[in-house]
Design brief:
Helix content: over 70%
Number of strands: 0
Order of helices and strands: HHHHHHHHHHHHHHHHHHHHHHH
């Protein structure tokens, strides 16, 4: 630290001591203004040690000033990449949105951990501020989609710098049902995975499809094709099977032919979030076509999973892993596991086999219908 900076720091600490001990609120606010001016005038050149000193000074002053002064401090520090980190965090976690919003929406000092903690515990206004940041990771948008109201979710989806996880897209597609504006925004995201796009289109209204066609005239035929493909997938037609799905099915067939496919392997697939492998493995062990198992696995309720698992003789721990995988990949509300466990324990194998025969008959007669 230079002698000039050291001298300025000593003066600051002396002034701070006086302001906190004997000064009025107005004097403390004036001290805060002077400290902020001094920091901003040299923020680019300060060392970590000097920034830490400013952090201590700001933290002391913030405990003794009004909300309006803290809000002004937040607005001045938010755009500064080298802003004192502890001060920024304190401002971000303030219950008053006037204080928190500037740093939540702008400050590069806030990492994903801080943003996620804020999004999990603070108000919808705090979530809205986070949703407008220049960039958002999938980990952050997961929480915004889970906790955010409609306004927050729309803002997040409309943010070109936002990234979304598989789980996030699943929740968005489920949430978009009945919300044409949200469905359109999701469909226009350039990075939306194809399987989520197909599911979105299959449920979309004619209005949404028309909007997507209008937004991308050269791809107008793509929307109609997507609808047809989504319908084929819903019926598990061979034409709907992707290369990745075919590879998964081939792996499971190899394990089954070699006598290495068992309940433990199914649980491992489920724990790893591998839907295609899990589905094909259950189909093999339950002795049903993959299409039948897939139809039962993607039902909104978990009864289909319970039937397949009971016929296969799975333990509850494996059934729970399969249900958790469905919830994670589908972006669904969490299944009531205790209720499912009780149902599974009461379910007789003979009853499950009868229900499974009914599903086989449905699958066989569906193409003719």
């Amino acid at each position: 630290m230079s002698s000039k900076s050291a001298h300025a720091s000593i003066e600051l600490l002396d002034e701070l001591q006086t302001a906190l001990s004997h000064g009025t609120v107005a004097r403390r606010v004036e001290t805060l203004r002077r400290v902020t001016d001094l920091f901003l005038n040299g923020a680019v050149d300060y060392s970590d040690e000097q920034i830490a000193l400013f952090d201590d000074v700001f933290q002391c002053l913030m405990r003794h000033i009004e909300a309006s002064a803290k809000a002004l401090l937040a607005r001045r520090l938010a755009p500064v990449d080298s802003a004192p980190p502890a001060t920024i965090r304190t401002l971000a976690f303030d219950d008053l949105i006037e204080v928190a919003a500037p740093v939540l929406s702008q400050s590069e000092r806030l990492d994903d951990e801080a943003l996620i903690e804020t999004a999990r515990n603070k108000s919808q206004a705090h979530l809205m501020a986070i949703s407008t940041r220049a960039t958002l990771s999938g980990a952050v948008t997961d929480v915004l989609i889970l906790r955010g109201n409609d306004e927050v979710v729309h803002s997040t989806v409309n943010n070109p710098g936002a990234e979304f996880t598989e789980r996030g897209y699943g929740r968005l597609v489920a949430r978009a049902e009945g919300d044409d504006n949200l469905a359109t925004c999701i469909g226009l995201r350039p990075q939306i995975p194809r399987h989520h796009y197909l599911k979105l289109i299959a449920k979309a209204s004619a209005t949404v499809r028309a909007r997507l066609e209008a937004a991308h005239p050269p791809l107008a035929g793509e929307v109609s094709a997507a609808v047809r493909e989504a319908t084929r997938r819903a019926r598990s037609a061979p034409a709907a099977v992707t290369r990745e799905t075919a590879i998964a099915h081939a792996l499971v067939k190899s394990l089954y032919d070699d006598g290495r496919l068992d309940e433990q392997q199914v649980a491992a697939f489920a724990d790893a979030g591998k839907f295609d492998e899990t589905n094909a493995a259950i189909a093999a062990l339950a002795n049903v076509p993959v299409a039948v198992a897939e139809t039962m696995m993607v039902e909104s309720r978990a009864e289909g999973v319970l039937i397949l698992a009971k016929v296969s003789g799975f333990s509850w721990s494996t059934v729970k892993a399969i249900i958790n995988m469905r919830d994670d990949l589908g972006g669904m509300d969490r299944t009531n596991l205790e209720a499912c466990r009780q149902t599974y324990e009461r379910l007789r194998t003979s009853t499950a086999q009868q229900v499974l025969r009914f599903h086989r008959m449905q699958q066989t007669t569906a193409p003719a219908a």
